[in-house]
Amino acid sequence: MKRRDFIKTSLGVAVTTALTAKPLTSALAASPIKVGILIPLSGPAGLFGPSSQNCAQMAVDEINAAGGILGRPIEPLFADVGGPPADATQAALKLWKGEKAEAFIGMHDSAVRGALTNLFKGQVPYIYTPVYEGGECSPGTYVIGETPEQQLAPVIPWLASEKGASKWYLIGNDYNWPRDTNAAAKGYIEASGGTVVGEEYLPFTADNFDSNLAKIRDTGANAVLITLVGGASVGFNRAFASFGLADSAIRLGTLIEENTLAGIGAENSKGLYSSAGYFANIDTPAAKAFAEKYAAKFGADAAALNSLGESCYEGVLLLNALAERAKSLSAADMDAIADGTSYDGPRGAATMSDRHVAKDIYLAEADGASFHVVKTFANVDPGKNCG
Amino acid sequence: MELVATYGLNFAYSTATLGLIVLGLAVVFGLLGVMNMAHGEFVMLGAYSALMVQQAGLPYVLAIPLALFVCGAFGWLIEWSVIRHLYRRPFDTFLATWGIAILMRKGVEVTFGREYQSIDQSLPGTVEFFGIDYPAYRLVLMALIVALFAGLFVWYQRSNTGARIKAMVENPELAAAVGIDTARLSRATFIAGVATAGLAGVLLAPLVRVEPYMGLDYLLNSFFILVVGGLGTLEGLLTGSGIIGGADVVISAIFDKTAGYLGVLTISILFLWLRPDGIFSRR
């Protein structure tokens, strides 16, 4: 289109719109709700950027097609929070004060979450979606992700009785999520009659796991709880299987999603279990419909579905549920009605308590390069996170 | 006894693989003085060559010629376009190759995606060795590396090309004056160095994580090894690999992995401070 034609057409459209516009009040009411969606597009977690963005966009499109939130369409504003907390704070501040975002949804690490709750101070609703260590209690902050209580309380006793897991070795990267997860795990292991035979934390830079594997073999562990993340988890699990340890011990991971499993590889995934609120092939009508819509919308080559990406879809659903129940977008109003707010997503039914959600937890076993769910634990409580 | 065998084999494995990884950098940095920050990315290209061969359903050994060709061709391109203008300007090579490294990571990310790839072991399973079950592929790999180094050592000592490289490294002007084409020799040396990194990538790919950013893992340790061992000799390279790999294995076994990493850093700092030319210095 030539520039002059473009101007003419635009002017024509503008005039027509102005003439046929509804009264001012309803035009304002239908002004879009800007929602800041904070996801890692760079850095170590950048791997989850594309699936997170796709899932969030899909939820936004669906809610907009159904009339929006409180009758207003959602306008998503994506920002990269893959860097350090200071950069993430800047990005969020720009959306909040500059672009006038009225709500935030975040899928990022806990260091960034700490910086953001400090920035928002409960003045704007903020939904935190990924799996995390538990204990977030700031006002206006709503947490969807699995807590260690949810991932472990039902799973460890089940593995003890069904798979004979009794001697546990705990291995993770050296930061708060693995340490808090293992602290919770110890209680459940003891209660299930098992013992902890070793506990180790590795720096993120670790790429040789031989000494850890020698210790695991030496302790005679028959179960390993893995809270290594990303590349460290891939490297550890490959080496674990190559030493033949998969024949003598099962592995349970609380952040081994589809991408990590792809890196671990089919030949190294024997006896590998993962506990999470979502897997790409959960066998429920809601999850299947979600996966089909995702494939139809983004094509077969789209970023693979996984629990972290999908959590962004749930985040938009929760924002909708909170706003519709509170009849408001203010964090104070949402805080007042948050307990008991529920919605149905691909993960199943979710109900808020303590601004966390009680939901179904799936235990999946690796079958080659994909997961299949071996046990569903219904409506698992997120544990006590406030006070 | 079993414990000794386990740690002994782990020590041997870590020394051998570190030696293999650092060999390419030892050639490029040690002989040509090019601080190749893209060294790890050539290892990565080697691993992705293995991936391409696997995806095409071809026998794994074909990954070796493919990686040598891909890395050699790419090495030729960047030597011709960038590096040859920067010889004897180490800091400039540092910046230029860092830029090239970013380009290579992004290029692979665009082509293959950001996700992890898995490369199958052609020899899965373990075999009993010194009373313990040890991964078969690792044992074969160690034997291959020993053979490679032995061959290289003999070649470098005996061959004409080896002598010419030594002459060029000692005194480039004099070497040129006696009729050695130093520009061509430098290019060949650079290409051989990065192709070796690609070979390391192929051989290690079944054992490690494979993704566009994997190269960063190999860069730091490689420089540590050269700091400790010293530049320009195979003895230095192997000693450095043994010390860095050994410190990690031993300290990690006694304490934990964090202590092992701390030990490696401490050793590197002490060497830079007290013995900046490393153990084997050609000076």
Descriptive overview:
The complex is a heterodimer of chains A (387) and B (283). Chain A is built from 14 helices and 14 strands. Chain A has two domains: 190 residues, 3-Layer(aba) Sandwich (Rossmann fold), CATH 3.40.50.2300; 128 residues, 3-Layer(aba) Sandwich (Rossmann fold). The longest helix of chain A has 20 residues. With 387 residues, chain A is an alpha/beta fold. Chain A is 43% helix and 22% strand. By secondary structure, chain B is mainly α. Chain B has one domain. Chain B is built from eleven helices and two strands, in the order ααααββααααααα. A two-stranded antiparallel ribbon of chain B has the order 1-2. In chain B, strand 1 and strand 2 form a beta hairpin. The radius of gyration of chain B is 19 Å and the shape is globular. The model of chain B has no long low-confidence stretch (mean pLDDT 92). Classes of the chains: A alpha/beta (387), B mainly alpha (283). Chains A and B meet through strand 7, helix 9, helix 10 and helix 11 of A and helix 1, strand 2, helix 10 and helix 11 of B.
Number of helix segments of chain A? 14
* Class from helix and strand fractions of chain B: mainly alpha
Portion of residues in helices of chain A? 40-55%
Task: Assign the CATH class of the largest domain in chain A.
Answer: Alpha Beta
Radius of gyration of chain B: 19 Å
Number of domains of chain B: 1
Question: Major β-sheet of chain A, in short?
Answer: 9 strands, mixed
The H-and-E topology of chain B, N to C, reads as HHHHEEHHHHHHH
Any idea what the radius of gyration of chain A is?
23 Å
Number of domains of chain A: 2
What percent of residues of chain A are in strands? 15-25%
CATH architecture of the largest domain in chain A: 3-Layer(aba) Sandwich
Uncertain regions spanning at least 5 consecutive residues of chain A = 15-28
